Predict the structure.
Amino acid sequence: MEMREQWRSRWGFVLAAAGSAVGLGNLWGFAYKASQGGGAVFLLLYVLIVLLVCLPVLVSEMVLGRSTGKSPLLAPIAAAGSAWQPMGWVFVFASCGILAFYAVLMGWTADTFFHSLFFGLPGTLDEANEFVGSVSTGSSVFLGQLFSLFLTASVVVAGIRGGIERLARWSMPLLFALVIILAIWAATLPGAIAGYQEFLFKVDFSQFSNLKTIRLAFGQAFFSLSLGIGIMVAYASYLDKRSPLPKEAVLISSLDTSVGILAGMVTFPILMSFPVAKDALGESFVKTLFVALPTGLSSLGLLGQLVAVLFFGLAFIAALTSSISLLEVPVSSLIDRFGWTRDKAVIFSSVFIFLIGIPAALSDKVLGNMASFLDLLLLLGGFLIAILIGWFASRVFDEDLAGCNSSFRGRRYLKFMLRWVSPPVIAFGLIVSLIDLL
Ligand code: PFF
């Protein structure tokens, strides 16, 4: 039997998993969702959900992957029997669906990057609208989507060590450095304080009962941590038995949340500092930052152009380390289930994902709906994982964590949360989200 490939080092795994978590969801989604009325309450709910619900589920996903050594499609069966087969298919289809619209957004990001680099930034509202039109409509969308999927496929085809780990090792430190530098720079802008107030400190307690705020917080927590669709199952299946999973989970979620907050500390000061950026903040679900940021930054001349190039370059790299993790789910599943070669699995999955992404490329309404619907699938996946590991395969959980020397008390705490807290809280999130969406 062929040996399963393994990460070169513990850090390779942590950086790759953090790379999956940190993506467009942090650089753009976090700030956008916080600005939809929830403000500080959104942020508080988000942190609570991550701590109480997502952390135990994250550890469970990793345990599921590591203890079975299987792809997301087959790991649930290996852990708890063939009745769990549908869960594996939910993972595979959800990750294909997410990558389908994610690649379109990546295309916009790449386009904005190249546009800012070669043609400069739009200075007026008219130019801004023209700018966003050129980025998000017509053939440039398909080109961007193809370009993004092509890069994603070329990394995944090179395998775990040679592709995914190699990319994460240099890109993640660069990304952290860039977002910190940009946040420090943004702190010097005249609208910095107003920006922080808008983002972090706008407290309105009535938001606790706002269904939309609750839905956005749940969706963002799962989306941002890449949770509930088997990505961490796939990545942990290449992990050795000694890595301390609970510690890794805390590290990954701290890095992810920090980048989300830092990114908000870049975008909000920019938006509050330049009036033209606020005017450009449109109604559209997705286009906001793609127009408002470059337009606002244009008032700074060459420096603004440099910041825009850095920000969108950073966003694209962050997105790439996420898109490769999404592609790894169907790819590893096809290899595992049908014995395909990696090349064949990558080509087949990428073409399939390109095709189902076409409607999202043609209409941002479809894109928005796809994103909201798939958030529900992530919650459903998280719910199933909590039930599977908490109730049906809890011995696997104990044995795996005991094997990596995690403390008995820590294990007991995690299992308690997994059994009694995560399922009802996620079910609540799912129901609220459904009611709000309908
Ligand atoms: N976590 C990534 C982000 O925040 O952009 C993208 C992502 C990966 C979302 C995997 C969802 C997912 F299941």
User: Anything to note?
Assistant: The radius of gyration is 21 Å. The pocket of 4-fluoro-L-phenylalanine is lined by residues 20-21, 23-26, 98, 223-224, 226, 229, 231, 322, 326, 378 (CB under 6 Å). Residues 10-437 form a domain with the Hydantoin permease fold (CATH 1.10.4160.10). The first helix runs from residue 10 to 21.
